[in-house]
Predict the 3D structure of the following.
Amino acid sequence: MTHIKVNVDGTTYEDDVEPRLLLAHYLRDRLGLTGTPIGCDTSSCGACTVELDGATAKSCSVLAVQADGCAVTTVQGLAKDGEWTALQRAFHECHGLQCGYCTPGMIMAARDMLRENPHPTSEEVRGALEGNLCRCTGYQNIVRAVLAASGQQDGSGPASRAQDTPGRQVSEEVTA
Amino acid sequence: MIPPAFEYARPQTVEEAVRLLGEAGDEAKVLAGGQSLLPLLRLRLAFPELVVDVGRIPGLRGVREDGDTLVIGALTTHHDVVRDPLVRRHAGLLAAATATVADPAVRHRGTLGGSLAHADPAGDLPAVVLALDGELVAVGPNGERTVPAREFFVDYLQSALAPDEVLVEVRVPKADGWGFHYEKFHRVAQSWAIVGVAAMVRRENGHIAEARVGLTNMGATPLRAAAAESALAGADGPEAVTRAARSAAEGAQPGQDASASPDYRTHLAQVLTKRAVLTAAGMG
Amino acid sequence: MTDQAVAGEAEAGREVGRSRLRKEDARLLTGQTNWTDNIQVAGLLHLAILRSPMAHARLTRVDVAPALERPGVLAAFSGADLAEGLGSLPCAWPVTEDIVLPDHPPIAVEEVRYAGDPVAVVVARDRYAAADALEAIEVDYDPLPPVLDLEAALAEGAPLVHSDKGTNRCYTWPLTTGEPFDAVRERAEVTVKRRYHQQRLIPNAMEPRAVVVTPLAASGEYTVYSATQIPHILRIMLATVTGIPEHKLRVIAPDVGGGFGSKLQVYGEEALALAVARRLGRPVKWTESRSEGYLATHHGRGMIQDIEVAATREGRLLGLKVDLIADMGAYLMLVTPGIPILGAFMYPAIYKMDSYEFNCTGVFTTRTPTDAYRGAGRPEATFAIERIMDELAVELGLDPVELRRRNWIRREEFPYTTIAGLTYDSGDYEAATAKALSLFGYDELRAEQRRRNERGDPVRLGIGVSTFTEMCGLAPSRVLRDLRYGAGGWEAASIRMLPTGKVEVVTGTSPHGQGHETCWSQIAADVLGVPFEDVEVLHGDTKSSPQGMDTYGSRSLAVGGEAVHRAATTVVHKARRVAAHLLEASEQDLEFRDGVFSVKGSPEARKSIQEIAFEAFTNHDLPDGVEPSINAEHVVDPENFSFPHGTHLCAVEVDTETGYTKIRSYVCVDDVGHVVNPMIVEGQVHGGLAQGIAQALYEEAVYDDEGNLVSGTMADYLVPSAADLPEFVTDRTETPASSNALGVKGVGEAGTIASTPAVVNAVVDALRPFGVDDVRMPCTPERVWRAVREATA
């Protein structure tokens, strides 16, 4: 057992865990934070995406011990005092979800992209979501939702880097 | 699926990591970002007794210059490599290819050193570091040694690292003035390259003076397309490049898997080499 | 397209036809979900299943004892240990009288018949301990030959999947109507014959399956939570399989993360979890991992289609002959044999002809069983007919759209009884096609295609069309009887008017992403004239919704929504009687508008329906002989199927050097009748398109020669992401269905059914100049490249 101390959505937890315990299972089974679902075992689907020290990570591909001393933000930590973030509102208003299983991961991935690129094109949104699979929506309304939320303040938790890098625009395209 | 049980250590120094690995013999695995190791563990394709988490060892992250060489810490994440101004200026090929690795969340966690040490011929970065004529620096019980990229990739998922060695940095010569392009061919955005071509081109007086071509997923290890490189020297336009690219797969022994047959891979290597070189040379 | 769709009695509706934002979203957006795997109860144990690594073998030894030594393990069982009290998993659709129905134990006892067949189970305190203990179980397999090739499996002397049955042929189901096809072929000027392959697909609902069983030993009651589309059917079937009396079983489908047919099933794991919970008297949970699900959750498609059309030189279809061989997999699951039969009626599609001959042979193989996957039989049928219509057009030198126009049922010909015997009540193929062609810019794209072909562009443009229809709104029970299906096709709804005027709608449908809570609220709010927010929809729990046929086959709105509509109408009718009494007027003198009864001519005399609900509750002043309730319940059995249709157009760019296909544009105009919520309808179309396109270009369950699933993880089976799919242009025409008062048809499967042939037609169209006339699905770059190379060799 390894002792870890993790801040999740603003609350600090200390636990002794098996080193092999996945962060996703730590959140779900130990902390009861079941808002983050698991959709695959190959880090393909992105349903379990959370923020780890302000950057997205697939929590099924991170050991809980790797999160020791870190701040984790899950979909359950986004709304503040019942107030949804711009992305949550946009997903609702654009019908960016059907069964909703991929939604937590989609929102976390979209939030990550908007921090770096607050005014993306629809192609950039699609590229940023390449690691998050949805089987219901055909992605069209997810892309619409992210575009609708872009440029708006996405209420960020304490672990967010949003304050550190306001509006920093970085393209991942590198050309000669 | 659920990983098998293992012991866990989180050394604070490279030396401590090397000692732990030495004690464990062949039964340890190094954990950096975990983006290759965790899926292997979850599918129970690896059963290490000890996982040595080097992820927090200070000094292994970041990019610096050393004369004509760019030095990239092994723990530098893909995300940071893509955005690093020094990498973008002096080793643009690496930044461009790294931007195609997996997806943004994986790029946040995955590291350059981890990708190279994993030595997966389908990974994008081994062929890139080959094309860059890079060197890999490892620390073992007898201190530090430098391995040229050409000697680093030994076999399928097997690098030149000894079980008690830790990869600490990647050194690439600055390629200022070189044109570059990484041409990745895959069926969906997230999937592995069926074939990838990493091209570096130096032009002189309108023709190609020197070309270096690295091949992804064209055999058990990443490869340099040596025959094509020689044939490309002196190429003065698209036709000459197309001709030279026909030898791109010479000597390669590409495998058969669910996504492609060997002869299709051979064909792709030729087409993609042509495209990568033309783009790198500004002739496309 | 107007978003002001209105329907039937809801003509004055404020809700129906409006893009109401979904009630379901709040919990899903904030992580306050109730997926089955989220459920935690005191003393919960975890079940893990050891599965056969071999496609076919006799079990000579299964020793679970070593697993019991592992820490945290409470029990372990082999198939033999659990055999008592565990019957065969059900097949509810024995399509012919002489069908071969093999025994299907939820866990193998003597023989495994596909890689993934369960052989032993472990029960432990947590999922980690359970996974570890599986590795301690010792099993000896005596290998038997795998059965993988559909045609070879039918040959004399082939190795058998079920040796006691003496054959791999499950059934042969014929349908012959009109003139004999041979006679039609004789007088035809043109015939075209092709063989198409429907690859196996893995449904990939994003939520893996899971089941939790909580026993109450004192009373012998069991609650089963399952990620299922069919809580009601599951309850009946689990009672049959386990012998637990139906009234002691409660089945709950909590939040369910997608289904697409894969959760329209009675799975071995559901029975096993129940059996183990009964044995141990403890709550038990099982959750599949994704790669486990690839083996254990049923697959879809898997057919060889031989199709032949006969026509005149002018392009009039004379007849159609279809011979199918359908891969059942190793066992018959809930509706496995019926899936190709659902397609049997759809091969003639929207076309008129004189002759139709259909034959389907179901074959057992040593692979994961097949069953319903989005569209279920109808995408396969639509694919084959729409592909061969393109081939016929080429043969005749006609534009593919023109060929379709010459054969489709004209708008003035409805209702029309097709050669397959279905009566299409309505449709307007002309309108949908005209709209689609114009949105697509068909003529301009054809011109560009010619230019590219003329200059020998290595990147070719291809244009594909698909004019589809489908039968949905499953289903008239008498038709189901004739098809030998084991249940009816009705749906139930009840409306409970609560004393404070709030409304509970109880539905027998079981949504998992479709938005029934929102749409049923819209329907009820309109009929009752109450605010949308005052309506709560209850579903997915056999205790609160005791009667239902659940959700599949694009049936929920046309049948279940209709039941809500009728129940609400009855509530108004009952309330009217009370209102008349209270307002001292005759019922005929009452007007009902916006939820308020008023007396014609004296608008100040009024009672709202919500006030009447309270009057019924107090029962202080109801008319004599009127019971103190205005609640109502309806069970609707549809009189006919509904027939959505549409025209889909796809343009692809095919890189002939690499074989890579890129979708450049996709336009579809669907006619799903009246629309309750346009936003939700559009979303259903988008998702359907993505899955149909995925079949055309990306997905395939690949097996090797030993019967191992090669595409065994989500990293190998290519579910497309946002980066791989185009922006769709969707639009609608609106020709109401006549089979229900709402005028609705159903939309869940339309996009999937229509898009696959549109995409493949486009790919083949791009390659026609090279002499290519087919590319097998999925149209991978390598297949495209090979097709060009072989055609030009």
